[in-house]
Amino acid sequence: MENSCEFAGKYSNDVTLKELRDRLAEFAEARGWDQYHSPRNLLLALVGEVGELSEIFQWKGEVAKGLPNWSCDDKEHLEEQLSDVLIYLIRLADVCDLDLGQAALTKIVKNARKYPVPAHQTT
Ligand SMILES: Nc1ccn([C@H]2C[C@H](O)[C@@H](COP(=O)(O)OP(=O)(O)OP(=O)(O)O)O2)c(=O)n1
Questions:
Q1: Does the beta carbon of 36 sit less than 6 angstroms from any atom of ligand 1?
Q2: Complex prediction ipTM
Q3: Does the beta carbon of 33 sit less than 6 angstroms from any atom of ligand 1?
Q4: Which ligand 1 atom is nearest residue 49's CA?
Q5: Is the CB of 38 inside a 6 Å radius of any atom of ligand 1?
Q6: Distance of alpha carbon 29 from the chain centroid
Q7: CATH 1.10.287.1080 fits 17-102, yes or no
Q8: Structure confidence by residue, pLDDT tens digits, 25-72
Q9: What distance in Å separates the CA atoms of residue 40 and residue 104, rounded to the nearest whole number?
Q10: Cβ(53) – ligand 1 distance below 6 Å
Q11: Which of 63, 77, 88, 110 has CA 20 to 30 A from 71's CA?
C-alpha cells in the first residue's frame, strides 16, 4: 500500500547497525550519559519503552498489516516508540561489548537448524 505520510520514507536509507551504534555512543558521550548507561539501566529503559510501544496497540483489537486506517500522527508515534526500543537495544549490546548484528545472523542460522523448511509434499 502506498504511504502518503510525509515522514515515512520506507527503506529510503540503508542505515547500518554500526552507524546507529556509533551515533548513539557519541550522543551519550557528549552529554556525559555514559555513567548512566550501565547494562542494567539500559535494560530497564528498554523494557519501559517496550511498555510504551505496547500502549499504542492496547485495546485496539487486531491491527491490519500496513496500518491502513492509522493517521500519519499515529504512524509517526509508532515509529518513534519502535526507535526508542531499537536505540536502547543497540546501546545495551554495545555497552556489553557484543556484536549484535553478527549475533543476530548467527541466531538466524541456529533458528534454521531448529526449524528446517518442510520438505515439499509430493502427492
Ligand atoms: N538517559 C537517557 C535518556 C534518554 N535517552 C534517549 C534514548 C531514547 O531514544 C530517548 C528516551 O527519551 P525519554 O526518556 O524522554 O522518553 P520518550 O522519548 O519516550 O519521551 P516520553 O516518555 O515523554 O514519551 O532518549 C538515552 O539514550 N539516555
A1: yes
A2: 0.95
A3: yes
A4: 19
A5: no
A6: 22
A7: yes
A8: 999 999 999 999 999 999 999 999 999 999 999 999 999 999 999 999
A9: 21
A10: no
A11: 88
